[in-house]
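Late entry, evening session. Most of the bench is empty. Finally got around to the prediction I had been postponing all week. Sequence below, unchanged from the version circulated by S.P.
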Amino acid sequence: MSDRPVSAARRAFLASGGSALALLAFGATRWAGAAQAKTIVTKPGKVTIVRFSDAGARLGEETVDKVVKSEAEWRGLLSPLAFQVTRQEGTERAGSGQYAFNHASGLYRCVGCDTALFDSDTKFESGTGWPSFWQPIAKQNVIETEDRSLGMVRTAVSCARCDSHLGHVFDDGPKPTGLRYCMNSVALKFVARAGA
C-alpha cells in the first residue's frame, strides 16, 4: 500500500472530524443562545441531600430548603457565563473551563449553593475538554432529567438543592460505572481536600 492513499484518507478523515466539531460547537452556541429565553426557576420546597466535609467525609443525610433566588439575585451572584450555563442550560466551550484538566485532590461543589457534587477520586480524562466523573459524590445531590434539545435525547444533570444545570451524563465512561458525567467547569466550585 502506498503512502499517498493513506495520507489522503487521513486528511479526509481529519477534515471531516474538524467539520463535525465545528458543527457541534456551532450547535452548542446556538443552543445556549436559544436557551437564554428560558431561565430555570426553582420552586420553594424541601430536598434531602448528603452533606460532606471539605475532607470528603460523609456527614450524613439532611433535609434542607431548596435554594430559591430571583433572576436578578442569580445574576448578581454568578458570572455572566455561569448564569447562562446554570440558570439557562447553556454549555461552556470545550477546553475553556478551569477544571477540565484539574488533577488536584478535593471536592467539586455547586457554584450556586455549595452542595457537594463530585469527588476528585472519580474524575477522569475523557478527552472531551470538560471535567468528567464516573459518578456523583451522592446520587441524592444531583437530579437527572431527559433533555430533548439539539434534536437528540440526552440526560441532563442538575444540582438537587438549587436546580443549577451542571451538564449531561453519558454511558461511555470507564469502569466501575461505565458513566461519564460531563460537567461545565463554570457550574462547579473546586475545594481542595482539607488535610491533603
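Two things to note before I forget:
The domain at 36-192 is CATH 2.170.150.20 (Metal Binding Protein, Guanine Nucleotide Exchange Factor; Chain A).
Residues 1-37 have pLDDT under 50 and may be disordered.
Will write this up properly tomorrow.
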